[in-house]
Known about the structure:
With 154 residues, chain A is α+β, with helices and mostly antiparallel strands. Chain A has helices spanning 6-11, 20-27, 110-119, 121-147, and strands at residues 30-35, 40-42, 50-56, 58-65, 69-77, 81-82, 96-99, 103-109. Chain A has a single domain, classed as Sandwich (Jelly Rolls), CATH 2.60.120. The longest helix of chain A has 27 residues, at 121-147. Chain A starts with 5 loop residues before the first helix and ends in a 7-residue tail after the last helix. Chain B has two domains: 17-111, Elongation Factor Tu (Ef-tu), domain 3; 125-247, 3-Layer(aba) Sandwich (Rossmann fold), CATH 3.40.50.80. Chain B contains six helices and 16 strands. In chain B, the strands form three sheets. A seven-stranded mixed sheet of chain B has the order 11-9-8-7-12-13-16, with helices on both faces. The radius of gyration of chain B is 19 Å and the shape is globular. Chain A binds chain B through residues 58, 60, 62, 68-75, 77-80, 98, 100-101, 137, 140-141, 144-145, 147-152, 154, and chain B through 36, 88-91, 131-133, 160-162, 166, 187, 189-193, 195-201, 203-204, 208, 222-223, 225-226, 229.
Amino acid sequence: MIHTLEPILREHPFFQGMPDTYIQLIAGCSMNVRFEAGHVIFREGDPADQFYLIREGLVSLQLVVPHDGLTTVMTVGNGEVLGWSWLFPPYRWHFDARAQQPTHALAFDGKCLRAKCDEDHSLGYEIYKRFMQIVTERLESTRLQLLDMYGNHA
Amino acid sequence: MATMLEQPEVLSAGLVPDPMLPMSYRIQRVRQETDDTFTLELLPEDSGERFSFAPGQFNMLYVFGVGEVPISISSDPDDAPMLKHTTRVVGTVTKAMRKLKHGETIGIRGPFGTHWPVEEAAGRDVVIVAGGIGLAPLRPALYRLMAEREKYRKIVLLYGTRTPEDMLYRHELEQWRGKFDLQIEVTVDRAASSWRGNVGVVTTMIPRAPFDPSNTFAMVCGPEVMMRFTVMELLKRGVVPERTYLSAERNMKCGIGFCGHCQYGPTFVCKDGPVFAFPRIASIIGKSEI
């Protein structure tokens, strides 16, 4: 018996409200993946052709900072989306992504979805508005991080 | 809603305790928590029988000859007469306080102010969101919750700090995590790659934290900006505003609402707070002129 990923997508908050035809289409571009702790999922500068929904685990977004070495700028955990560089030119990753724990995820073929979004702008709208929500939330969090709220400012 | 605890009314020989008169406490230990924070462990010079406090209340600590500062109580309310105060070295008084040694004395006035709604939360989920040194005023609430764990449903602690090295009470949190049914999530603003935990602001953990928002009491303490964004996330998740509490910080001086130094809109933080239900301060929180 073949199990599709449609039920998982339908229940995931990220795809809430997505029309069923699109769920079927997106499920066709997705697959289950598993990463061991320490595995580098993608590297800064590499082509960004995929994105991931983390089902269980923790992934660090990292970059090398002169004098500080490899630095984690944020982590992505259960239920969260990893990767949006596949949506915007030049379609290259801006950070390294490393599994901090054994991580189960759904991987989506971004290149394939991008082409489908170009063909069907309603699908594109459904995808882009969901990613814009994530971009907005992460921008807000980054601004709070930049405030250095817990620092000793006295 | 949080209420001010009744102060003991009468001492022996009919004396009414003077809230402006410091009690003498002796330093048992000064524990360095992080680079810039430390905990004073204190015992009263008398029996300390008349001192009890509720989680969330604060004391005025007087370094003789230097000055007095308000510091929340961070010890176990059931561990009286031992008092613990965790604070950061930020000014003249706390600098002098940091230099105190075992056996020296310090003045204590208090306890003052309102408390966390620990009793009111019985039968429900409890989510505690702490930022930086904001964990200190919440620790007595955690002690009380752990002491009566069976009274509560899920208990979740979301704790954000600047770096892994800035984490308070690390050993105790690890013990609690292992011993009690308590979900603890720690996140830091920045970390080297050796850190295996979460990186990001504490608000990002709220959407996926395991609690039932319609049946939850939330207790929040940290920098004011962090508390504002935390409350927004909690309300977005569906937590009821009347069950969302936060601890405000202002320049408390007298501790009893006389001097006006800690006026916060129509309230005085020292006697109407520091713990407020969110609706009470919703219209003034974040206003730069208040």
